[in-house]
Amino acid sequence: MENTIELIAEQLDRHAIAIIDNLLPEDVLQDLLSETKQLLNEFQPALIGRGITEQRISEVRGDRILWLEKDQLTKSQEIYFQFLEQLRERLSNYFRIGLPWFECHLATYPVGSFYTKHFDQFRETNNRIFSVILYLNEAWVPENAGQLRIYEGDEHYDIEPKMGRLVCFRSDLVEHEVLKTTQPRFSITGWIRRDEPTPVFL
Questions:
Q1: What is the pTM of this model?
Q2: Helix (H) or strand (E) holding 182
């Protein structure tokens, strides 16, 4: 795993994006997919914006999400979080920037849904530094669609959301969209951040 994390850092440095296949063992990936499907009734429509401007606009995105909490993880989710923690620490050292935490959620795109072209970093803040996506789409074929389209100036290329594929990219530099899917599409999507987590007061 250490070599994989080093490869991610080097690819990010050179290209602002890294793609790694077969990140986790097959049994862990299957557990993550199964757990995600079991929780679908708890998913909520994803919103755009933040704070008082946060809103649901179906013409922009159609995914549904469920945030993951570190104290409520399954064993398979803990394995993935351990990887994210190692990645956070390495990227912080490699790029010499404080990256104290990460956040992530389960995500599903129902049939016919999409997410139009955007950057992951909000206009009014710059706390999201790296976006990290782990795909959980078993037996994905091109006809399923839902590819991640990456824009580079006037050009673009598509990344297939295959089971076990990790995509990590600079949140402020990589413009992207999710193409309309013809099958339910699953992932764990997150961000490595440079701000401090907001405390929760009960």
A1: 0.91
A2: none
